[in-house]
Amino acid sequence: VSHFPQTAVAVNPIPPVVRHLDFGLAVLDITSGKGKSVRTDSYFVEPIDCADLAYSLVKTDPALVGTDPGNEAYAVNLTTSTCDCKGWHRHNHCKHLDAVREAYEEGGLP
Ligand SMILES: [Zn+2]
After folding, report:
1. CA of 23 to the centre of ligand 1 (A)
2. How far, in Å, is the centroid of ligand 1 from the Cα of 14?
3. What is the pTM of this model?
4. C-alpha 52: how far from chain center
5. How far, in Å, is the centroid of ligand 1 from the Cα of 91?
6. How far is the CA of 83 from the centre of ligand 1 (A)?
7. 88 Cβ contact partners less than 8 Å away, ≥ 6 residues apart
């Protein structure tokens, strides 16, 4: 059960960090929230093979109960500025989309 206020979910006070692992894997660390509720979630990030510029995010630790328990993976589409998480459907933006766009613009994504 999430005890974080909904408004904190889309706030990224700390820029996302891309870590490149072996085997061509990359991990995107998304830090969100503020004050005592700041948290960092780590996702494997890889391009989705489609006509749009899109990335899949898969939680590196599915057992970790995050702000969205039960959801283990997200599809973030930079071309259409969409994400398939609950937060995006509710607010039309979310931390995944913000973080992937920022990491992409920094040139850090695979
Ligand atoms: Zn999202």
Report:
1. 26
2. 17
3. 0.80
4. 18
5. 10
6. 5
7. 82, 94, 96, 97
